[in-house]
Amino acid sequence: MDSLVAALPGLIALVMVCLAMLPNRVANRVPGLLGHTVALLSFIAMLASLAAGWVTTGRDTPLTAVFSPRLTSPIGMGVYLDPVAVVMAVLISFIGLIIARFSIRYLSGDANQGRFFRWMSLTLGASLFMAIASNLLVFGIAWMLTSLGLHQLLTHYPERPWAIWASRKKFLISRVGDILLLGAIWLTFTHLGTLDYAEIFAWAEKSRVSVAETDPVLPWITLLFVLGAMTKSAQVPFHTWLPDTMETPTPVSALMHAGVINAGGFLVIRLSPLLNLTPLALDLLALAGAVTALLGGVVMLTQTSIKRSLAYSTIAQMGFMMLQCGLGAFSAAMLHIVAHSAYKAHAFLRSGSVLEKAPSSLETWTIGQTAGGGLGNWLIPHAISLLLVSVGFYLLRIHPLTKPGGLLLGMVLALALTQFLVNSWAISHRTLVFHGFAGASLLCAAYFTAFAAMDHLVAPSVAAPRAAPSVLEWCLMALVAVGFALVFLLQRLAGRLAQTNWMRELHVHAMNGFYIDIPARRLTARFYGQSSPVP
């Protein structure tokens, strides 16, 4: 019975992948049927994943099922369902259900609606396979199929030059990620003699003290996995494709920002027992994640297009999630993936409604910015935020100095709560101050409760906490903390400094993404022999 429960999500994923084999002419004749089929399969996959999660509760070993025996090959095809895989499978199928239902209405009357659902089915099925695969070979195949499906969705409107250009840039960066991932998989197989997760994790547990410190190949394996994950989750300098893919249908943007973009983070969390053996690789990931988070946060504030602003918001959030992974806070990173996916799917699918309310939102923003300029107007809210975070740490018995990244992540949470509190505090209206404090308290309580639940759920499936941070890691965390504090101060003082020359220049540079995308544009132009069109 357990094997049947484990096999069901994999079988549904396989059916979704097979739907993509329909010819366009057939798919476009029955777009409504195909769209409802994708939504129904997503719903069944969600129920099956929830059932698998129920069965795995309290088990010491993952739930597995084998579709093809190994025979003479050392690699078999199957599923590996532990709490990490179940959480991702439920998330993917839920997001797929919402986006598929939205797409039925959004693309009603589109001549290529059936084609759209073909490739959406492939993307969702491959993403589901990535989450539940039992070995790295199946994961790698699903990884590349996801890229194929997304590329076809990005070119849904072939008459839009910028959409084609952006898809080509994305194609090249994705191929870099594929090469890095395949190199890591090949090295893993030649070095360990296996690609099965269970055997890899058993080797990692056995080697945590002895072999890991002297193994000359392991650092290369972990470095390639980390770099491959960075390409998929839009980390600097591989992030430049994401803001340009805005001329695609809104459901594709939602699927990309709420689903596909999480693949890199999931790879790191999935392989955390192996990656944790090489602290230097995770330190590199933490540094790249911090730079990405800070860059995305600054650039996001200067964008005039709501979709580009959301794109840089995704880059910043993915950067922060990778920072959490690099610090060893894998449970917090898993929670971040779930929360960000739900928020970003809602944000993109509601972006049209947001534009209708833009004038009133702009007025509210202006008032808040004007009122919140005084020094005391954010120092006191920050003190309150620090108190709320400290209470959360105390109630959950979390020691921020021993929890991976606890001190830094707690500071960032306090800054986020300060941002929430500062406008209501600055206006000095008693009711607004009370509502702001109550709201911040509820947010803080919700976060710590959700983190405790996620940590309890996935902690047995991710890497055990490392020893006390090294001097290098403490320096890295201090540098990142200073960076977040400076960005916070810059945002709070932007109104006062708006007329200075250096702030105007910074605004222009930030609005253009600090020109980091120029090498990628030149490479794309050289490879395809076509210059960049005007977006």
How do you describe this structure in short?
It contains 24 helices and 2 strands. It has 535 residues and is mainly alpha-helical. The radius of gyration is 23 Å and the shape is globular.
Number of helices: 24
Estimated helix fraction: over 70%
End-to-end separation: 54 Å
Overall pLDDT metric: 84
Radius of gyration: 23 Å
Strand content: under 5%
Identify low-pLDDT runs.
358-373
Q: How many strands, which pairing sense, and closed or not: the largest β-sheet?
A: 2 strands, antiparallel
What would you call the structural class?
Answer: mainly alpha
Number of domains: 3
Query: What string gives the helices and strands in order?
Result: HHHEEHHHHHHHHHHHHHHHHHHHHH
- Globular, elongated, flat, extended or rod-shaped: what is the shape? globular
Describe this structure in words.
There is one protein chain. The protein is an all-alpha fold and about 525 residues long. It has 3 domains: about 1-135; about 160-350; about 370-495, no CATH class. The chain has helices at about 1-20, 25, 30-55, 85-105, 115-130, 135-155, 160-190, 195-205, 220-230, 240-245, 250-260, 265-270, 270-275, 280-300, 305-325, 330-350, 350-355, 360-370, 375-395, 405-425, 430-460, 470-495, 500-510, 520-530, and strands at about 65-70, 75-80. The chain has a two-stranded antiparallel ribbon with strand order 1-2. A hairpin with an 8-residue loop joins strand 1 (about 65-70) and strand 2 (about 75-80). Helix 7 (about 160-190) packs across helix 24 (about 520-530) and helix 19 runs parallel beside helix 21. The radius of gyration is 23 Å and the shape is globular. Residues about 360-375 have low confidence and may be disordered.
